[in-house]
Specification:
The structure holds two protein chains of two kinds. Chain A contains 19 helices and six strands. Chain A is mainly alpha-helical. The two termini of chain A are 13 Å apart. In chain B, the strands form two sheets. Chain B has a two-stranded antiparallel ribbon. In chain B, strand 1 and strand 2 form a beta hairpin. Chain B is globular and about 75 Å long. Classes of the chains: A mainly alpha, B mainly alpha.
Chain lengths: 411, 344
C-alpha cells in the first residue's frame, strides 16, 4: 500500500524541484508570470513551510508568526544598509536574529498550550508591532519604515558613488535583473531574485522533509497526538516543542529577509495580526501537516489576492454582458462586492468553508478525490464484491483507515 | 496626588471597555468552552449600530425657502430631519441623544446576531479541536470586518455625544481639592457608570435568578445538568446572545470616545484576550478586575514622568503585554484562575 518512503520522497523532491524551477513557464499562461508575484509565491511558500513545522507537526497554533517575518525584514535591511548590498550576510544575520527572538518568545509562550498559546503568541506579535510602529522608532523608523538610502555606510563594499541607490545583489547578480524570453507568444521572465529564492525554497523544502521523516519529527507528532501521555512516558516534551518553534521562527525570518532582498523596504505593517493570520490561512488552505500543502496554499492565496483584487466592476460587467440587461445588473451587484477591494470577504468565506468542510485542506480534498476514483475503478474491476478488498489484504478495516489517514497526511 | 487621581480616572473608561468585552469573552468561554475570535467584531458591530441608527434618524427633508436667500444668491435649502418634522421637539431630542436611543436599537440586533452565530456556526464546532474553533471564528471575524468596511468605508465616522454630556466635570473640586486640578470629560464618566451598571446587572442575573443558577450549574458540570432533564444547550445559546449584547453595548457607548472604524474590533480583541489571560481564564470576576486594572495601568504608563524615567521610550502601547508576561511567569493561572480550567 505504502511505497517505501525512500523512493516516494525522492520522486516528490524531484517533481517539486522541477515544478519550482519551471515556475516562469508554468505561471506565464495563467497571468502570474511576472517576477514580483513569482518571488512572493516562493517567499510565502518558505514562510508557510516554516509555520507548518510548528503547527502541522506539534499542533501548536501560533497567531504571531508575522513578528518573526518582521524581525527578519528589519535585521536584513540593517545589514544591507550597514555591511554591504550582498544579500548573504543579510540573510544569515536575520535568520540568527529571528531565531533568538523566537527562542525568547517561545520560551515564554510554550509554558502554556492550546488556546493560551495562541493568545500569547498573538499578544507578542501585537506587542512587536507596537514596538516597531512607535516605541522603537530610532531602530525601525516607525510609520515610514526603512529603505536603502544613498548615505548608507555599507562598510564592506563602500558607499555608492554613482549617485543612485544600489539594489541588493548576490556576488554581482542584481536581484531585479530579468531576462525576457519570448516563447509561444508569451514573454517568459526569468528573474535572478526568483531563482535565488526558488533555490532556497527547494533547500528549505528538503529540510522540512527531513524533519518530517526524522525521529525528531516523530517526537513532534507525538506532542500533537497526546502530550500528556508523552510526558508520562518520561519524555520532557517542552524542549522539542521549543526547538520546533525556533526552527519555524527562523524560516519566517528567512522569508522576511528574502522579502527585503527582493524589494528593499521594511515596515511595521508586515508584523500586524492580519499578516499572522495570512500564513495560518495559507497553511490550513493547503493542508496543515502535509509537506506540499503549505506551498500550495501560499501560492493559491497570493495568486488570488493578485488576480481577484484587480477585478473591478467594469470587468465583471464584461463577463455577463451577453445576458439580458436586468440579469446583468443583478449578477454584477451580487458578485462585485466579493471582488476587487472586497476580495478579503471572499478570502474569509473560503477560509471558513475550508475549516468547516475540509479541515485537512486542499491536499486532503485531493486525497479524497483520488480515493473515490480508485474505489470506483476497483469496484468496476471486482464487480459487486468490493467490500471484500480491505480484509483480503489481511488488514482489519480499522487498521486500513488509520493507514489511509497517515497516507493522506504525508503525501 | 491630583496627577495620580487623574491617571486613575483616565484609565477607567478604557478599563470599562476592556472589562465589558472581556466579560463577554469569558461568558462565552465559561459556558460553551469556545474562544471567540469574532468577539472583537461584535464590539465593532455594536459601534456601527450607533452609526446606522444615527444615519436613519438624520434622514432629511429638503425644502426650498421662499424668502431667504443663501449668500451666493440661490434660494436657501432648509434641511429638516424627518423625525423632527414628525415629533417636533421630541424628535430633536432623539437626534441629540441618539447614542442612548441606539442602545434600544442595538439590543435586538446584537441578540439576534449572537443567536444566529451560535446556532448557525459555533454549535457545529463543540466537538472539534480548539484550533478549529479559533480558526473558524477568525475567518468569521475577517468576513464581518470586511463587510462593514465595504458598507461604511475605511474611514472613521465620528459620533457626537449628547449636548448635555459634552465638556468636563471638575472632579477635583467635588472632593475638596483645588479647582480645575482634575478635569474629567463627562461622557467618560457616563461610560464608566454604564459599565458598572451592566456588569452589576450580569452578576446579579447570574447570582439571583433561577436561569442564572442553572447556567452556573451548567458551567460547573454540563453533563449532570443535562441528565437532570434541563435543556442546557438552549440556555447556553441565550448566554451567547447575552454576551453579544454586552459587547455590542460596550461598542455603542464607546462611539463618542473613539470614532467607529472597521478595525477597532480586532485592536480591542487582542488586548482583551490579554485581559482574560491575566484575569484567569473562565473567571468572570477576574476578567472584570483585570480589565479595570490594565486600563488604569495603561494610563499610568502614558504619564510624562514614566516616559522620562525610561529614557524617553513611551511604553503605554506595550505595558499590557509586559504585565501579561510577568503574570504568566509568576502565576500561570492568572489572577483569579481556578485549577482545572484550560490547563492543557
Amino acid at each position: 500500500m505504502l511505497k517505501t518512503p525512500h523512493t516516494s520522497d525522492r520522486t516528490l523532491m524531484i517533481v517539486f524541484t522541477i515544478l519550482v524551477l519551471a515556475g516562469p513557464l508554468i505561471l506565464a499562461p495563467v497571468g502570474a508570470g511576472y517576477p514580483d508575484l513569482m518571488q512572493r509565491f516562493v517567499i510565502y511558500g518558505i514562510f508557510a513551510i516554516g509555520f507548518n513545522i510548528l503547527f502541522g507537526l506539534t499542533g501548536y497554533l501560533s497567531f504571531g508568526h508575522a513578528a518573526f517575518l518582521g524581525v527578519g525584514s528589519y535585521s536584513a535591511i540593517w545589514m544591507l544598509k550597514l555591511l554591504s548590498v550582498n544579500i548573504v550576510p543579510a540573510i544569515i544575520f536575520s535568520v540568527v536574529v529571528s531565531g533568538l527572538f523566537a527562542l525568547l518568545i517561545g520560551y515564554i509562550s510554550l509554558r502554556r498550550s492550546g488556546i493560551y498559546f495562541s493568545i500569547l503568541t498573538l499578544a507578542f506579535a501585537q506587542m512587536s508591532y507596537n514596538l516597531a510602529y512607535s516605541v522603537l522608532t530610532p531602530i525601525t523608523n516607525g510609520e515610514t519604515g526603512l529603505q536603502l538610502e544613498l548615505d548608507d555606510p555599507r562598510i564592506l563594499d563602500g558607499a555608492s558613488e554613482s549617485g543612485q541607490v544600489a539594489s541588493p545583489s548576490l556576488f554581482g547578480f542584481e536581484m531585479s535583473d530579468t531576462a525576457v524570453v519570448p516563447f509561444l507568444g508569451m514573454d517568459l521572465q526569468f528573474n535572478v531574485g526568483f531563482y535565488v529564492s526558488a533555490l532556497i525554497l527547494i533547500g528549505m523544502f528538503y529540510l522540512s522533509l527531513r524533519i518530517f521523516r526524522s525521529p525528531f519529527g516523530m517526537m513532534l507528532r507525538a506532542i500533537k497526538s497526546n502530550q500528556t501521555r508523552l510526558n508520562y512516558t518520561g519524555f520532557n516534551s517542552r524542549p522539542y516543542a521549543l526547538t520546533a518553534f525556533v526552527i519555524s521562527g527562523m524560516y519566517a525570518g528567512l522569508a522576511g529577509a528574502l522579502l527585503v532582498c527582493m524589494d528593499p523596504l521594511a515596515g511595521a505593517e508586515r508584523m500586524q495580526w492580519t499578516a499572522s493570520g495570512e500564513v495560518v490561512l495559507m497553511t490550513i488552505m493547503g493542508g496543515a501537516g502535509t509537506l506540499i500543502g503549505p506551498v500550495l496554499g501560499a501560492g493559491i492565496i497570493k495568486y488570488f489576492e493578485n488576480i481577484f483584487s484587480r477585478i473591478n466592476e467594469s470587468v465583471v460587467e464584461g463577463w455577463f454582458s451577453a445576458l439580458p440587461e436586468g440579469v446583468t445588473d443583478v449578477l454584477v451587484a451580487v458578485v462585485s462586492p466579493f471582488l476587487g477591494s472586497g476580495w478579503h470577504i471572499s478570502l474569509g468565506l473560503i477560509f471558513m468553508l475550508v475549516v468547516i468542510f475540509l479541515p485537512g485542506g486542499l491536499v486532503e480534498g485531493a486525497g479524497r478525490l483520488m480515493n473515490l476514483v480508485v474505489r470506483l475503478w476497483q469496484s468496476r474491476k471486482t464487480g459487486a464484491s468490493q467490500s471484500d478488498t480491505g480484509p483480503a489484504d489481511g488488514v482489519t478495516p480499522a487498521e486500513e483507515v488509520s493507514h489511509r489517514s497517515v497516507n493522506t497526511r504525508e503525501s | 496626588m491630583d496627577a495620580i487621581l487623574l491617571q486613575i480616572l483616565n484609565g477607567l473608561d478604557k478599563g470599562s471597555a476592556y472589562a465589558l468585552i472581556a466579560l463577554g469573552l469569558t461568558l462565552i468561554f465559561g459556558t460553551l468552552g469556545v474562544v471567540n475570535f469574532a468577539h472583537g467584531a461584535l464590539f465593532m458591530i455594536g459601534a456601527f449600530c450607533t452609526v446606522t441608527f444615527n444615519n436613519l434618524l438624520s434622514y432629511e427633508k429638503v425644502t426650498i425657502s421662499e424668502t431667504e436667500v443663501s449668500p451666493w444668491g440661490t434660494p436657501l435649502e432648509i434641511e429638516t430631519p424627518y423625525v423632527e418634522l414628525w415629533f417636533g421637539d421630541f424628535g430633536a431630542m432623539m437626534i441629540d441623544y441618539s447614542v442612548f436611543w441606539s442602545i434600544l436599537f442595538a439590543i435586538p440586533v446584537m441578540l439576534l446576531l449572537g443567536i444566529v452565530m451560535e446556532r448557525g456556526l459555533i454549535k457545529h464546532f463543540y466537538k472539534r479541536p480548539h484550533a478549529d474553533q479559533i480558526l473558524v471564528t477568525f475567518g468569521l471575524a475577517i468576513v464581518l470586518q470586511e463587510v462593514i468596511k465595504s458598507v461604511y468605508g475605511a474611514n472613521p465616522i465620528p459620533q457626537p455625544a449628547p449636548e448635555a454630556f459634552v465638556g468636563s466635570i471638575d472632579v477635583g473640586a467635588l472632593i475638596g481639592m483645588t479647582e480645575n486640578s482634575v478635569l474629567y470629560p463627562i461622557w467618560r464618566m457616563v461610560y464608566f457608570l454604564f459599565a458598572v451598571v451592566v456588569i452589576g446587572g450580569i452578576f446579579a442575573f447570574l447570582r439571583y435568578t433561577t436561569f442564572g443558577m442553572v447556567v452556573r450549574a451548567g458551567m460547573a458540570d454540563r453533563e449532570t445538568v443535562g441528565l437532570l432533564g434541563i435543556d442546557i444547550d438552549k440556555r447556553f445559546t441565550a448566554m451567547f446572545g447575552l454576551a453579544a449584547v454586552v459587547t455590542g453595548l460596550a461598542g455603542v457607548m464607546y462611539t463618542p470616545i473613539l470614532s467607529p472604524n472597521y478595525h477597532m474590533g480586532m485592536d480591542f480583541l487582542v488586548l482583551c484576550f490579554v485581559v482574560v489571560v491575566v484575569g484567569g481564564m473562565g473567571s468572570l470576576a477576574g476578567a472584570v478586575a483585570a480589565g479595570f486594572l490594565l486600563g488604569i495601568l495603561q494610563s499610568f504608563a502614558s504619564m510624562p514622568e514614566v516616559k522620562a524615567f525610561l529614557f524617553g521610550f513611551s511604553i503605554d502601547q506595550v505595558i499590557i503585554y509586559l504585565v501579561a508576561v510577568i503574570i504568566l511567569l509568576t502565576r500561570p493561572r492568572g489572577l483569579m484562575g481556578r485549577k482545572g480550567v484550560m490547563e492543557t
